[in-house]
Design brief:
Helix content is 36%, strand content 28%. The chain has helices at 3-17, 19-22, 25-33, 41-47, 50-64, 122-127, 141-152, 155-164, 190-195, 202-213, 274-278, and strands at 66-72, 82-87, 95-102, 105-112, 115-119, 133-136, 169-176, 179-189, 218-225, 231-238, 247-252. An 11-stranded antiparallel beta sheet has the order 6-5-4-3-2-1-11-10-9-8-7. Strand 3 (95-102) and strand 4 form a beta hairpin. Mean pLDDT is 75; it is low at 1-42.
Length: 279
């Protein structure tokens, strides 16, 4: 999905909101800055049609543009899990900057658009001749995985896909981390999800499709929305291994993340340094 296509899906989401957005800026302000009152548009979206609720949340998250994210790997494992920032304001430049653990070693993952980077601390830099980062080839498994990670944490893409192409249902009202939330669930075709990922080349799209196909042809996606129609948690798993292999993403501090920039070219190591970084 290129920038033009994402813009068109956001417009479609606005249409789905109907009267909630037809009234002008007041509805948007209520959805992003205040709590839901019993009869307002946000409360109506939360209790009404699941597609409308997901579409409304896509608009709210698009307006926020960025936030803090926590990615939890299957079974709560620290392997490839990460904490940090994500910026999804520009659909052609989704960016993430996460620090996680791989085999007890802290590794930093950064993605700018379709460019992926791995970074380490001063100890790793010393082993790489003072360089802190490696740029990942887009055609290898590690690069494909980092790219897929950046797409998974883009809430606008995920919410929009579920609103338009999935089969969303309302699971119910729940308490999540002490906050009352609405739990929605959608079942999607993996191929439809890949088709909705922005700015991927044909080769990258094929690689990401293969990564998802390893988990199954269909995906179950769960969303938890708070009373301001913000996405606070997202979970996804394929039909082969079920919820046992679910990846979870939590969102907080919306609109407060710093801009994520690519590492300086002078701070990039060579491809041969990857074993020094990970070893």
């Amino acid at each position: 999905m290129r920038a033009v296509r994402l813009a068109s899906t956001v417009v479609t989401a606005t249409v789905l909101l109907g009267a909630a957005t037809a009234c002008g800026s007041k509805g948007a302000a209520d959805a992003t800055s205040g709590g839901a009152k019993g009869g307002d548009a946000v409360a109506a979206a939360l209790t009404g049609d699941p597609r409308t609720a997901l579409a409304a949340a896509a608009l709210v998250m698009q307006k926020a543009g960025n936030g803090k994210v926590t990615m939890i790997a299957p079974d709560g494992s620290t392997h490839t899990a990460g904490n940090g920032d994500a910026d999804w304001k520009d659909p052609s430049r989704t960016a993430v900057d996460l620090t996680g653990e791989v085999e007890t070693k802290k590794i930093r993952f950064r993605v700018i658009g379709t460019d992926g980077y791995l970074g380490g601390g001063d100890t790793e830099a010393a082993a790489m001749g003072g360089k802190h980062w490696l740029k990942l080839p887009a055609s290898n498994e590690l690069g494909d995985g980092v790219l897929l990670m950046s797409q998974l944490v883009n809430p606008v893409v995920q919410l929009t896909l579920a609103a338009q192409g999935g089969k969303p249902v309302k699971v119910g009202q729940e308490s999540l981390d002490g906050v009352q939330v609405t739990h929605l669930r959608a079942v999607e075709d993996a191929s439809a999800m890949v088709a909705g990922m922005p700015a991927l080349s044909a080769d990258q799209r094929a690689a990401v499709q293969k990564s998802l196909d390893d988990d199954g042809k269909t995906l179950t996606v769960d969303f938890w929305l708070n009373g301001r129609q913000e996405l606070v948690q997202y979970q996804e798993y394929g039909d082969k291994n079920g919820e046992h292999d679910a990846v979870t993403v939590k969102y907080s501090d919306l609109g407060k993340a710093a801009r994520i920039e690519a590492p300086a070219a002078t701070d990039l190591g060579s491809d041969a340094d990857i074993l020094k970084l990970l070893g």
